[in-house]
Amino acid sequence: MKKLMTVLLSVLFMSTAHAETKQQITIINNGKAGGSYNARTQMYRDGLVDAGYDVNYEDVGKISQAVKMFKETDKPTVMVYSNNQVYKQDLFHTEQNFILLEYQQPLYICQTNRSKSKSSGFTVAHGKGYDTKLLNKVLGDDIVLVPYKNSSAMLKGILGGDVDMMVNNQGKSFKYMESGKGTCEPSNLLPIMQATVIGSNIDVKQIREVMFEITMDIPFLEYHNSRQLNRPSNTWENELAIVKDHEKQWQN
Amino acid sequence: MEELIAVSLGLFAGTVTGIVPGAGVTVAMVIATPMLMGFDVTQLLLFYMALASMVQFTGTIPAVFLGVPGETNSLPAVIEGTKFNRRMMSQLAVGVSAVGSVLGSVIAVALTFLLLSFLIGHVSVFFSNNTKFYLYIFVIVFCVLVYNRGNVLINITLCLTGYALSLPGESDISSNIRYTLNIDDLEFGVPLMPVLIGFLIVPTLYKIYNDHQRVKQFKGNDVAFKKVLVYFMRCLPSSIRGSVIGYLCGFVPGVNTILATNTSYSVEKRLNPNSPGRQLVASETANNSGQFASMLPLLLIGIPITGSEVILFSLLVDAGWSPFQFNNVANNADMIFRDIVPWFVFANLVGLLVAWPFARQILRLFTASKKYVIISLAIFMMGLNTYLGIQDYRTVLYTVCLIVFGCVGLLIRKHEPIPLIFMFILGNDIEAVFFRQWLI
Questions:
Q1: What's the topology of domain A21-105+192-251?
Q2: Quick one: CATH architecture of A108-186?
Q3: For B144-191, what is each residue's pLDDT tens digit?
Q4: Nearest Cα residue to B68 out of B29, B23, B99, B28
Q5: Based on the structure, what is the number of domains in chain B?
Q6: What ipTM is given for this predicted complex?
Q7: In chain A, what residues touch B129 (CB-CB under 8 Å)?
Q8: Cα angle value B232/B238/B241 (rounded, 5°)
Q9: For B131-249, where are the E strands, in sequence order?
Q10: Out of B38, B392, B439, whose CB is closest to A144?
Q11: Residue contact A31–B320, C-beta within 8 A
């Protein structure tokens, strides 16, 4: 009888312990010290913790390093990802890795006030990963394309008087307009910028449910609204179709 | 609290670095890297500021007590400090140097405050590619002409080697991957840590380990702080002069504090040829003043001008930093006075405490355990390299690079590697700036 009680108690204890074991998940943040990626990744981390996950938060400075970590991991992992990285990192969205489409925004074309009297021969700042043929098609063949490392460097370049125009993301374009030194217009001819959440070694649908709920939280929505980030909230299938369609834009 | 931790760690690192002859801020930054990788931008800046300030204080201790320069800019302290040592007045020399260093730091802050509105008013000049282009030319010319006793051939070779190491992977102007020699791991570039350990730390540790100079003397009587202050007041004009000279010299890339110390020393030697105290105070004051000034180009516009700042810059960029993290330069300036300056003053006061009353005790502690410290550091650095390799999923590349660069570093140990490290870290940016200058 004593033995039976011991066995029963141990089975009961083990099953309780098992029930309390939290599901582990790694979340990769590829922008350690600032920016909206950092802020949103932290909101996902907090949301996953609230949902009962044991979250391992990996702070990785370089995007290339983060993608390598993501590709090589054998543990459940999620990461916020930008679609303009797909060619550089060869990490495309698939049914196995796509969780949700977080926002999309157009690219902006900004022009300095002092260059408005010019009619041709513009110098144009652009990100190093941008399609130069497409930029020539949109802005003309007589422009001089000036490559910059990232959006911040472009903003500094145009503020420093290096160039007449820049093609930049929404956030930096708004900042430029705040300076009063020029104007910006969204372009419907250039590819849309998107941020997605992707995962590896996970049950995509299960994680989507949790993460979708996080994106519906008030702080998350307020953050998106404050930055004018357009969220095409939709079904998983439609969001994936939108993302794949936009990936084709970067290929053409 | 996080700020206090960063400053405290910086002060501790600075204390150790200053009293280890041959070690410097650059070496200390590399050794502290694993810890620094977890720091945010402000913590990194505070750590560096505390470290660099503290080194200026404690570097004087071995210079005066042992006649060995703790830092390359402590040579005037060696020459004049020895004169104090002979008269059993080493502690007075360290004391007045420390008080002078505090004054130098305060004057540097005041000068920055006065000049800041001018800098902010002309900020867009600093953003232009043109400005960066000429600044980089200036810095490269300094690298070529100043390091390794002005041996141009050696410096050019080091610069080209550093640039060649910066080439594999993605450049700053194109997303195309280049010069990977079909090694997949090189797509992300040559890793920073093996370069730093191989070319900088390995030769430094080798030199320190093989430095058989014995500690012969800890001469000196204890001196009351009041006496130090009275002596310092006699040297006050020299200290103020040294602060201003040091501040201006601090902006000169590559040689800032060395130039600050030696220029101030030379001026004082001319003005007061028979006063070792004034010469010592002027040079040590200039040291701290120059140290603060040298950080301003990095803090305001993101251009590092010293070897250690290049490493700080790399860590800051990894932490997501750009001058625009604080929105604009006016905010950067605000950040400097709100977040950095109070801690800078605090660090200097701690420096005064450590450098003056505890000087001899600190020195004894190090000299008694020197070899153990170096062996531990060597093992730690190898472990660090492997750890970072695992973190980066490139363990083999990290290990191979460390072996190769460590061997080359030992072969060229008689040369200063800063031009190589400078070009390795900034090579991509320099290439992009030069390319844009050609386009614009």
A1: D-Maltodextrin-Binding Protein; domain 2 (3.40.190)
A2: 3-Layer(aba) Sandwich (3.40)
A3: 887 788 899 999 999 999 999 999 988 888 878 899 898 888 888 898
A4: B23
A5: 1
A6: 0.79
A7: 157, 160, 162
A8: 135
A9: 169-170, 177-178
A10: B439
A11: yes
